[in-house]
Design a protein that fits this description.
By secondary structure, the chain is of the alpha/beta class. It is built from eleven helices and 13 strands. The chain binds NADP nicotinamide-adenine-dinucleotide phosphate.
């Protein structure tokens, strides 16, 4: 990205020096990378208070590829290993032919997947595990409402929740109802035909991927003592520390969160809002679930690397069914 702005104006393919590994790093030849809405938010400058990037700056979080070189301290990977990875906010740059990242971010790619399929999993998979397992501590038999079940996060989250024994309700438009059923959803609410607020009000967990009014409304459909976990709503109490916010930003965050904090207090419902962290061990867990055929990648569309701008337009439509992926295979 040349500067912050509209993706079509500021994203360009340029030549940069090939990376060499630091002692704890792996250099990966990238075969495919996946897009995430956060790429657009970064490009448009929405996150510049949290993560100011020096321009020009590479972009992209998810990748799958082959290990090209390893640093002197790396014991867990060897040249030629097929791996998948999610970069951190400090190390983004997977929309590229190569990247150097800490070895602890990587895991071996699920054996039966193409690189395009493997690249589609890391960010959405880590987000789901960090929301449902690390924060809400879900248990088999619990009931969960997952918003936007047909999206990148939702399509993974439905499968993960089923794999660990939850009862899954999800919202989507009527054109995607069969699609989310095929992913395993038990109850499907077509938001253009039904109002989910008229349905059950005793979910153990609500996974809010939409934000806005959906975050506040989550407290109307979660049971007392339940859990609302959001990846699009206002900050929770730990969020300012997670992003190392300034005093002024903390005050703004506090103001933005006042209504959810009140709702959370009133109903005794835990509220979480977090940014995803890179974690190779959790990626290995995801690879295991894929190898056991309990989770499969869901790809909306694959674009060649040169068509990254077109891929970003597809993502920005907010209509993707699963993941938008770019392939470097032919570059
Ligand atoms: N840790 C984090 O902070 C974190 C991590 C990952 C993602 N996120 C955020 O989470 C959000 C979702 O990410 P994503 O990758 O899943 O996005 P996405 O793939 O672009 O979501 C597109 C999907 O959303 C569905 N959708 C749109 N409006 C809807 C509505 N009102 N009700 C139900 N479904 C709706 C669409 O289905 P229809 O076409 O059927 O409407 C479409 O399939 C984004 O805001 C992203 O920035 C945050």
């Amino acid at each position: 990205m040349k500067r912050y702005g509209k993706a079509s104006d500021v994203v360009r393919l340029v030549d940069r020096p090939a990376p060499t590994p630091r002692p704890n790093e792996v250099v990966c030849d990238i075969a495919a990378a996946a897009l995430n809405p956060i790429d657009l938010r970064i490009i448009e400058g929405d996150l510049k208070r949290i993560d100011p990037y020096r321009m020009p700056h590479p972009i992209g979080f998810d990748a799958s590829g082959t290990v090209r070189a390893v640093g002197s301290q790396v014991r867990t990977f060897r040249i030629g290993d097929e791996v998948f990875v999610r970069a951190s906010r400090e190390t983004i740059g997977t929309f590229a032919e190569q990247i150097a990242l800490p070895f602890s971010f990587f895991a071996l790619k699920p054996v039966d997947l193409s690189h395009e399929e493997a690249a589609s999993l890391p960010l959405v998979g880590l987000t789901t595990i960090q929301a449902l397992t690390d924060r809400c501590r879900v248990r088999p038999g619990q009931r969960i409402l997952i918003h936007a079940g047909s999206g990148g996060v939702g399509s993974f989250a439905i499968q993960f929740a089923k794999a660990i024994g939850l009862h899954v309700a999800t919202t989507t438009s009527s054109r995607n109802t069969q699609f989310v059923r095929d992913l395993g959803a038990d109850d499907v609410i077509a938001y253009d035909k039904q109002d989910y607020l008229q349905g059950p009000t005793d979910y153990d967990v609500v996974f809010d991927t939409l934000g806005g009014q959906h975050t506040l409304d989550a407290f109307k459909v979660a049971r007392k003592g339940g859990c609302v976990v959001s990846i699009a709503g206002p900050p929770d109490r730990n969020f300012p520390d997670q992003v190392d916010a300034s005093f002024a930003t903390r005050l703004v965050m506090r103001f933005l969160s006042r209504k959810v904090f009140a709702a959370s207090r009133e109903k005794g419902i835990r509220y979480y809002r977090f940014l995803t962290e890179s974690d190779g061990a959790q990626l290995a867990d995801i690879a295991r679930l894929v190898d056991q055929q309990r989770i499969r990648p869901v790809i909306d569309q694959i674009f060649p690397f040169e068509q990254l701008p077109e891929a970003l337009v597809r993502l920005s439509s907010k209509r993707a069914r699963g993941k938008v992926v770019i392939s470097m295979a032919h570059t």
